[in-house]
Structures are given as structure tokens and as C-alpha cells.
Amino acid sequence: MHKLLKLVILVLAVTPCQSITDRACGTDVTRMWLDIVFVVDNSKNMNLYGVYNTISNLFSSFTQIGTGYSDPRSTRVGFITYNYNATDVADLYKLQSYSDLYNQIQLLSTTPLSRDSHSYIDQGLGAAIRMVNATGGLRDNYKKVVVIFTSQYDYYYSYPEDQAKYLKSTGVTIMTVNTGGDDNTAENLRDKIASTGMAFAMTDGNTTAELQRALLASWFLL
Ligand SMILES: *[C@@H]1O[C@H](CO)[C@@H](O)[C@H](O)[C@H]1NC(C)=O
Ligand SMILES: *[C@@H]1O[C@H](CO)[C@@H](O)[C@H](O)[C@H]1NC(C)=O
Ligand SMILES: *[C@@H]1O[C@H](CO)[C@@H](O)[C@H](O)[C@H]1NC(C)=O
Fold first, then answer.
1. For the chain, what percent of residues have pLDDT higher than 90?
2. Residue ranges of the VWFA domain (predicted)?
């Protein structure tokens, strides 16, 4: 990104710290220029415990979700679920307010897992590539982040590491959260999918805090 624009953004980002309605500046992801796509495994054996709470806690009711605000520091959020196939639950145009986001998370968190036990991460990654691509030309200066939650590592149609490499080559940061206890999954997510230092696990402790730190870090590295 252009240095001057970056500087302007940084100044904008620092200013609201004076406002009493804002949360602590160091971990404030409510005032970033972000497009986030959450990719959540919903196959039969997925450990979904805490996933939607973690996502929900990333945002506060002060977060400007969607577009069209007079203050351009807004966040768009998309959701994809996958098992043998991926589903675009919400593209980056759908959720246009914090309450839209809240309702979408409530709906997802109460939707039962698929009866299908296949969990093809390449399907989730492919859908994420298409969702990010479909927004090309609009908000190109907003950092793109893909966050994947799964407890298993399997694929069928494409090599996930190639898809991840492609996404990262277009400037997208990929974060992974291993929601189960399988070491092989953790290793594959870390070595083949996640951006450097962006592979997390629900068992690490406070995943919301980890993701918030990572979102801030990825944004400043833009
Ligand atoms: C998988 O999902 C895509 C996109 O939703 C759809 O176009 C395709 O037909 C689906 N494939 C199968 C085998 O259901
Ligand atoms: C989307 O995909 C098309 C076709 O592959 C490509 O030409 C274009 O650059 C992509 N756009 C983005 C924003 O990645
Ligand atoms: C986890 O971190 C978030 C964000 O920093 C914080 O709001 C929340 O209270 C923490 N949760 C726990 C259980 O400590």
C-alpha cells in the first residue's frame, strides 16, 4: 500500500483512542480496514465447541460491519462452511450491520453439523478464493484475512497448500484454528496453510485474544 495512505490510515486508527466508547487501543479491531472470511468445517466429526463464541467475541457492537459508513474504517465479514463441499453462507456483501453479523452467528451456532463426515479443506479454501476474488476492484486497499476453523485435515480435489500459497500470493493473510486435539492436523495447518505465526488452537487458551492480536499484526504488516 502507498506509504502516505498508510500513514493517513495509521493516524485515523490512533485518533479514536481518545474516545471513551472505544475499547483499549492495543487490541481494538473495531476500527480496522478489514475484510474477513471465516471458513468453518461443519462436517459430522467437527469439534465446533467454542468456535462461534470465539468469532462473536472478536467484534463489539461498536464495530462498523459492512460498507457505507461516513467513517470508512469498517469490517466486512463473510462465512463459508464446508464438509464434502463448501457453502457460501454469507458473501462479503451480505452482512451490513453489527446486528446482521450477530444474527448470522446465532443462526450458524444453532445449525446442526452436516451428516456428511467428509471434510475437504480444499473445498473450503476454493470457496474462500472465489469469495475474495468476487470482491476484486472494491475495497482493494482493505486487508483481506481468511480464518479457517477445523479439527481435521483432509482434501480431495486440489492440493490445499497450493491454494493457500495462491491466496497468500495475492496478499491475503490466512489464520488457522485447530479445534481438536489431533497433532497431524495441527502440523498440516501450520506448515501448509497458515501464514507464518498464524496457526492457532482452541486449546491454546483465549483464541479470541490470539486472533485479535493476529488481525492487528497482519494489518500493520500490510
Ligand atoms: C458444491 O457446491 C457448489 C457451490 O455451492 C455447487 O455449485 C456444486 O454443484 C456442489 N457440488 C455438489 C457435488 O454438490
Ligand atoms: C479473480 O480471478 C480472475 C480470473 O482468474 C483474475 O483475472 C483476477 O485478477 C482475480 N481478481 C482478484 C481480485 O484476485
Ligand atoms: C478473551 O479475550 C478477549 C479479547 O481480548 C476478552 O474480551 C475476553 O474477556 C477474554 N476471555 C476470557 C475468558 O478471558
1. 73
2. 35-215
- The answer on pLDDT for 78 being more than 70 is yes
Query: Going by CA atoms, what residue is nearest to atom 4 of ligand 3?
Result: 209
DSSP, residue by residue, 41-86: E-STT---TTHHHHHHHT--TTS-BSS--SS---EEEEEEEESSSE
Comparing 62 with 111, the larger pLDDT belongs to 111
| CATH fold of 29-220 | Rossmann fold (3.40.50)
How far, CA to CA in Å, does 187 sit from each of 114, 176, 178, 183? Answer: 25, 11, 10, 6
Judged against a pLDDT cut of 60, whether residue 4 lies above it is answered with no
Ligand 1 pocket: which of 85, 156, 157 to mutate (most atoms <8 Å of CB)?
A: 85
140-159 tens-digit pLDDT: 889 999 999 999 999 999 99
- Ligand 1 centroid distance, CA of 112 (Å): 20
Angle of helix 121-133 versus helix 160-169 axis, rounded to 10:
20
Q: Where are the domains of the chain?
A: 29-220
| Residue ranges around ligand 3 (CB below 6 Å) | 27, 57, 206, 208-209, 212
Residue 116 has pLDDT above 50, yes or no: yes
Pocket test for ligand 2, best of 35, 37, 92, 133 (most atoms within 8 A of CB): 133
Under DSSP, the state recorded for 27 is: G
Pairing of strands 86-90, 75-82: antiparallel
